[in-house]
Amino acid sequence: MIRKVLRRIIQYFAVIVTCIVFATIIMIITASLPEHRIVDHVMESRDMLIREGDYPSWGGPTSVSDGFSDSVMLDRAIYNGGESVIRKAMLNPGELSASQGSHMERVLVTLDTDNETYTGYYSRYWHGYLVFLKPLLLFFNVQEIRMINMIILFSLIALLIFILSRKASLAILPVVSAVVFINPITSVLSFQFSNVLYITILSIIALTLIEENKYSYIFMLSGIMCAFFDLLTYPLVSLGLPLVFVLLKMSSEYINVRRTISVILRYSSIWGIGYAFMWGSKWIVAMILTGENTVTDALNQLLYRSGNDLNAGEGGIDNISRFEGIIRNIKYVYKTPQMYVLIIMLIVLMVAILAICLKNRENPLASIVEKRFLILGLFIVALFPFFWYVLLLNHSAVHITIAWRNLSISFSAVISVLCILLNGVSKNPVLNSDGD
């Protein structure tokens, strides 16, 4: 038993180290790509991007794109300063105009004006998105990349639905409705919003196709990829939705409370280890290769984002309560299409459960008792976003236009409970949790 655990720990360690080495090499290669063609293609989209600004919206509050983060991404992609390739890869410099205007405008005006500029560094993240963004910008402008993003993302969602319909139809409604809740249209328009959604969908597809004894590696790789590609948007979703899916796949078997809690703790811990080690490794690797004190900067920012103070640019509030951080995110989606859809789905599922119970003379409490530990597990996962809001209070309170997407986990978990009960009261369940 001890030997088996040690072997598994060594395997996890090997995966993390391999990913760190690969990430370092691929970021150095990416940093060596020529910027002049990239600049030309960004310039083709300049007017559109400046017109959109930092937070464009095509609808209500849940359709707000993150133009600010996209401007940070483009800034790193077009930067052509005098730093070495290694310093560019590890310190992630960008040039910003000292003039007034949106962050997007201050990035883009540096390309064709003589305004005063300054160089800033963003070394606490890997900026792995550049591995795809820079090569794409060599051949396409931003509008064209958005179209490519739409084709790939929507095709992946269609593939997810197809695979779930064949392998785990019970999960179709909870998983796909959560993806819709996140708003894939906005994800298409915002590069930064796409990263976590891609990772989440690919993780669920992988979990559908592989054996259970390989699940741990999927959760670890999910955490690692989030730390590599994402700028701390809504990474928790890449843990929460796959975890909901795993619990749904267990609905056809009898599980006790120990197994339920064990599954949640095991996969959450493994995801967290992958995420934390991959993210923290960037600070250490950057410090070793450049000699800059990137670790202190990253730790200071981490402490600030988990604190309860908001600076002047973020609202100027001292000692904001943890409860208020949660309420801000709930209020943001209150009276939005997503919330209306959730209410309608809940009503429809509850009516369907009641109708089947009356028709078959079934007692719904019997299904609740039978699946009580599984339901308990889903409700625990449904609380994950609120734990996240409490732990990362500043980030969650300031970046509401981003952080509300974590609530898709709660959305999916609640829908999952009702789908399980619907299947339980049906004499001939039409939804399978595993297999054809």
Helix and strand run: HHHHHEHEHHHHHHHHHHHHHHHHH
pLDDT averaged over residues: 88
The poorly predicted ranges are none
Overall SS class:
mainly alpha
For the largest sheet, list the strands in their spatial order: 1-2
Helix content estimate: over 70%
Question: In this structure, how is the largest beta sheet organized?
Answer: 2 strands, antiparallel
Number of strand elements: 2
Tell me what portion of residues adopts beta-strand conformation. Answer: under 5%
Q: Termini distance?
A: 34 Å
Report the radius of gyration as a whole number of Å.
23 Å
**Broad shape:** globular
Question: What is the overall number of helices?
Answer: 23
Write a structural description.
With 436 residues, the protein is mainly α. The protein is built from 23 helices and 2 strands. A two-stranded antiparallel sheet has the order 1-2.
Task: Summarize the entry for a quick read.
The protein is mostly helical and 436 residues long.
Set out the fold topology.
Elements: H1 2-31, H2 36-44, H3 46-52, H4 67-78, H5 85-91, E1 93-97, H6 103-108, E2 117-121, H7 130-137, H8 142-167, H9 172-182, H10 184-189, H11 191-209, H12 215-229, H13 237-249, H14 257-290, H15 294-305, H16 322-333, H17 337-360, H18 364-370, H19 372-382, H20 384-391, H21 393-398, H22 400-403, H23 407-425
Antiparallel strand pairs: 1-2
Helix pairs in contact: 1-5, 1-7, 1-12, 1-14, 2-7, 4-7, 5-14, 8-11, 9-23, 11-12, 11-13, 12-14, 13-19, 13-23, 14-19, 16-20, 17-23, 19-23
